[in-house]
Amino acid sequence: MSTLKFRPLRVTAYTVCSAAGTGRAATLSALVERRSGLTPNDFGASPLATWIGRVPGLEEQALPAAWAEWECRNNRLAWRGLVTDDFVDAVAAARERYGAERIAVLIGTSTASIGASEDAYRRLESDGRYPADLRRPIVHTPHSLGDFVQHALALRGIAVTVATACSSSAKVFGQAERLIRAGLADAAVVGGVDTLCGSTLFGFNSLELIASERCRPFDVARHGINIGEAAGFALLEREAGSGAWLLGYGESSDAHHMSAPHPEGVGARRALQDALESSQLTPASIDYINLHGTASLKNDEVEARLVADLFPSRTFASSTKGWTGHTLGAAGIVEAAISLIALESGWLPGTLNTGQLDPACGPQIRRENEQRRAQRALSFSFGFGGSNCVLALGRGDLT
Amino acid sequence: MSAIQSAGERELAELIVTALNLEGVAPADIEPEAALFKTGLGLDSIDALELALEISKRYGFQLRSDDENNLRIFRSLRSLAAHIERHRTT
Amino acid sequence: MSALPPIAIEGVAFWHTRMPGWTIARAVIRGEQDASATPAPRPTPGLLAPTERRRAPDTVALALEVAARACEAADRSPAQLRSVFASTYGDLGISDYMCATLAGTPTLISPTKFHNSVHNAAAGYWSIGTASHASYTAISAYRYTFASAVLEAATQVVCDEQPVVCVAFDVEAKGPLGTVAPSTGLLGVALVLAPPRGESQRTLALRVEQGSAADITQARSGAAALVAENALAPCLPFFEALAHSTPASVVLALSDHCLLHAQVSGSQ
């Protein structure tokens, strides 16, 4: 078997919609102006006392009639993402170039449209059946999201939904690279969508991981996460004349505990090592790191030590979850998009809401924004269940 | 100290075995003074959360995870049963 | 059309409530034996430590059983293998529990059941149980789940020149969710796929083509009726091919317009 070598892919289009803003420009403004998208929780009938990253206006924006089969909050947010930053047009152009069957669809999520199932259970009919408006099987399965995106983009090839918790929409980048390398696709739509729902709000609450106030990543007094919803997408191509770069990636497992990270960050370090190796970069060549930084006690401690151990002090590292909340299955794509926005704009976002940094932090972890020309970034996603993914992203020339 | 379970301890032992699906552990065999966490029964932090939930449902009061006395309260079947006895509302 | 170079199938595993193991499933498929008269209890995940074992829901028990059996059949140490885990619906029992509890007493969600509700629970438990730091993925593709899992695992084998265990499973639906997400019984399958090493290995050559559901291979063995009501039933034609020693061609659907052609070589 001949070795198929990894080669960087072009990121020729991308978009992000979160509580911080709809689209790249709005997201950049929010980052530069230090405007958090977090608000007090008002989601559901008896909202938990916490803060959330809620995307406004989804309640009023039903899917176009052609997509009625897939109607649910999660797909509404997916649709909003697709029509932002002309992403759907970029995909249409790629479809013309490559053919609808040569563009893979790989989308990450943690809960997809479980919110629709939750809603059905609150409105069961007297015979135990779902209400008529929710008797649409596709929305009650994890692939609700990937299936919707494939249909909405009129694509006809490979389509998969990835659900590895917080690493989902980072792992899809690696999955796309392999499909393209193996010749099974020429391009891929990667991304992720997660929306507010009872399962994650009350589920993380049962694990005492939810903060009652705004989350403060890496703060010495942090006490948990804020959940956010978001959609993000990127178009990856084997070759293109311009665009950003997926330079490499690394993936691993912690093999420690379902809901706590490995205390020495063994899996995280391995994923980082593999990302650096595949992208032929060294820690010193990294300008910006978008950290996972959920503001949970354990994640941030392990991550802070990893960064302090392995990176020089000039590296600029931050968590942007103070702007968006923890968008779970969408965190990978949201933070990859923010990393690309940082590289393109020269604005490196600090860490919002954070006061005094935990002593485990080295000089790399920043609270304040900085304007700095940056070419190489890493994005960390360390998920529930010990699934880790590190992406290496870049702009400019490859050398 | 008695190594025999009181009625309250026995009831709690049954709750623990059921709530945590402790295979092969008979409620009557849980030594009242033996450690519940790390050693002894070897329960972990998820079990603590699960137990707190079941206890709140059965006995009508909330065990707080930030209670500084938790190490003492959760130390053994006996200490946990005594704490429940003092605070139960159902 | 796009094709992957042939890879080796080093290990096969199968578990169904009435065919609890590849040996019996293969015999039922070949018409040599009847399925078990009585349903087997769910497997016990032996490689999990007691703490994880007592928490494991049906999906985890089932997935880990077939993953372990496939690795044994391949004579591969699980810790070295990357893995692909796949399920159409995930743990339907836990989804029913979550929705019912959220509708009634949301603040009383069981932390254990929540942490078992994530789609990557089986993958996570597997990595913990095998102490494996190799990467895993957990995917879903509705009725195309098994085909997507095989293609993903095969792509990893070809790109990284490393063996991969591919695990797919679906369980019984419970409660109102079952009216829109139907599935009965427990069905789990696993394959260890690897770079080819020698002439004597059974190989798998995959290619992806446009086509419609009308062109997929229909299951036709005695096992078909048994698994028909389980959401993972679309995998059966592939295992019918593996049950025989002759070369076979199986067509599975990857999406509404896309087919996976699987050419299985003969086996000794």
What does this structure look like?
The complex is a heterotrimer of chains A (399), B (90) and C (268). With 399 residues, chain A is α/β, with parallel strands linked by helices. Chain A has a single domain, classed as Peroxisomal Thiolase, Chain A, domain 1 (3-Layer(aba) Sandwich). Chain A contains 11 helices and 16 strands. Chain A has helices spanning 24-32, 73-82, 87-98, 114-122, 144-152, 168-181, 198-206, 266-279, 297-310, 321-324, 331-345, and strands at residues 9-18, 21-22, 39-40, 51-53, 103-108, 159-162, 187-194, 227-228, 230-237, 244-253, 288-290, 316-318, 347-348, 370-371, 376-382, 387-394. In chain A, the strands form 3 sheets. In chain A, strands 1, 2, 5, 6, 7, 9, 10, 11, 12, 15 and 16 form an 11-stranded mixed β-sheet that branches. A 3-stranded mixed β-sheet of chain A has the order 3-4-8, with no helix packed on it. The longest helix of chain A has 15 residues, at 331-345. Chain A starts with 8 loop residues before the first strand and ends in a 5-residue tail after the last strand. With 90 residues, chain B is mostly helical. Chain B has 4 helices and no strands. In chain B, helix 1 (7-19) packs across helix 4. Chain B is globular and about 30 Å long. Chain B starts with 6 loop residues before the first helix and ends with a helix. The relative contact order of chain B is 0.19. Chain C has 9 helices and 9 strands. Chain C has 268 residues and is α+β, with helices and mostly antiparallel strands. The radius of gyration of chain C is 18 Å and the shape is globular. In chain C, strands 1, 2, 3, 4, 5, 6, 7, 8 and 9 form a 9-stranded mixed β-sheet that branches. Chain C has one domain (9-198): Peroxisomal Thiolase, Chain A, domain 1, CATH 3.40.47. In chain C, a hairpin with a 2-residue loop joins strand 8 and strand 9. In chain C, 33% of the residues lie in helices and 23% in strands. Chains in contact: A-B, A-C, B-C. Chains A and C meet through helix 4, helix 5, strand 6, helix 6 and helix 7 of A and strand 1, helix 4, helix 5, helix 6 and strand 4 of C. Strand 6 (159-162) of chain A pairs antiparallel with strand 4 of chain C.
